[in-house]
Amino acid sequence: MHDLVIRGGTVVDGTGAPARTADVAVADGRIAAVGSRSEVGAGRTEIDADGALVTPGWVDIHTHFDGQVTWDELLTPACWHGVTTVVTGNCGVGFAPCKPDERRRLIELMEGVEDIPGTALHEGMQWAWESFPEYLDFLATRPLVMDFGTQISHGPVRTYVMGERGARNEPATPADIAAMAAIVREAMEAGALGFTTSRTIMHRAIDGEPVPGTYAAEDELFGIGAALKAAGHGVFEVAPAGVAGEDDLAASREVAWMRRLAAAIGRPVAYGMTQSNASPDLYRELLAETQAAADAGAEVWMQVAGRATGLIFSLETTYHPLRGRPSFDALLPLPIAERVARLRDPAVRAAILSESAAKFSLLATFGDRIVPIGDEVDYEPAYEDSVAARAKREGRAPDAVLYDLMLERDGRRMFMIPILNYADGSLEPVREMLLHPRSVFGLGDAGAHCATISDASMTTTMLTHWARDRSRGDRLPLELAVKKMTADTSALYGLRDRGRIAPGLRADLNVIDLDRLRAHPPEVLYDLPGDCPRLIQRADGYVATAVAGRVTFREGEHTGELPGTLIRGRR
């Protein structure tokens, strides 16, 4: 008698093998058998999966739950989208090691880089550590709905060792480098999954200063990388310069040193890769250079997204095209219902539309990309659906059209601006990236960019958009879409006990009604500590999610189970 049997589902096992109909049995948190009813036997709990997919749980390797994990046992919104394992500590920002008097600095760094409200972090975080091993020990005490692994980040390490010099990106001395390498080695031995650094000037603290380590010289990067070599495990992750379009020449230079680093330390080096508007064909050069590194034996990998990266906005979010106009900004202190009522006053409307934003104008820069979100979210919208195109058809000013649209749904109408990965109004570059053998799925940033994006749902749209619905180009095979989110992400981080459906592996599983699967439109909730807002999306179609064989969600609702554990590297 097994603990759980999932009956008659279409098993997509994560390996890329063709889907097949089978029962999946679970005992003691592990997959016990995969086969026919007679081969599998009975279960104390059984789930009828006839007509549904059975997949491994998603392994999301690019999240920013570093602070949220201390107060939210569910790690929303990732838990609503089939995720059973998360990895944090990305982009060179995190909260360990940290001296008590540096806590504010690290919070401001996370707030600036990842748009997580500082108020929420100040009010919500439970601090019970200074060193990185102490951080892991604290996390090991947390009841969680999913498994949690983390990396040690350059920003806190540099700040811990160098103080103000490190925070202000002064050059590291040989003694500084040795001290940082020792901390990273200690973290790896305690269970860190890797080390991360940021080199893009787009990542800045709330005071405008670049992330500590942004300008680190090679002696510092290679010195820290040597700690991973000595530990014998872990990923060296980079948010690189150049790939977001700030410096075209930097991107190739970045891949060159990462190739040399990977060869020197014998560990995977993974970098975030997107298509920029400034150099829309640069990504193809990087695909080729990454493949050349692999052909030469260097473990260089690309983390790629499953859709465009940009901005979600409404009257409730931090950024939108009407902000910066004095008559509009005067209404910001009002509750949303009162603000909408005032905005519907013809006199107020006329005053706002007569003004222009004092700063950077989203409407002027991205008007041809601003697309209203309907009841179903189209993640590959045509430019003919944009606000600018609509204004041209109607013979009206774009800001007037946008103003009226923003008042729909009682001021909660959402809009998207696809920017990166959408230079030509198509996701074909993303498809090329996802098909590349040296790419892994990531960059969803769950837990971060709370008032600007809602990409934690990217796991869901990997199936809905790429495997089922895409109409503006070729789709991806279902088996490949699942493999990208399970076996591939697990393998990069050495998590060999998950990511596939096979006897003996961890029973992290999803049962999915693909016909019903959908990500809801984004909405704003005020549920962070301090009543701070964030964008979230729920999902339909996840019949059940199990972690270590215990069903954690049924039809999107938490069952009360909290089987998640801390993942400690090679341990």
UniProtKB/TrEMBL annotation:
Residues 46-553 form the Amidohydrolase domain. Transmembrane segments: none annotated. GO terms for molecular function: hydrolase activity, acting on carbon-nitrogen (but not peptide) bonds, in cyclic amides. InterPro entries: Amidohydro_3, Metal-dep_hydrolase_composite, Metal_Hydrolase, Metallo-dep_Hydrolases_sf. GO terms for cellular component: cytosol. Pfam families: Amidohydro_3. It comes from the Bacteria. PANTHER family: COLLAPSIN RESPONSE MEDIATOR PROTEIN (PTHR11647:SF1), HYDRANTOINASE/DIHYDROPYRIMIDINASE FAMILY MEMBER (PTHR11647). This is Amidohydrolase family protein. It comes from Yinghuangia soli. The lineage of its organism: Bacteria, Bacillati, Actinomycetota, Actinomycetes, Kitasatosporales.
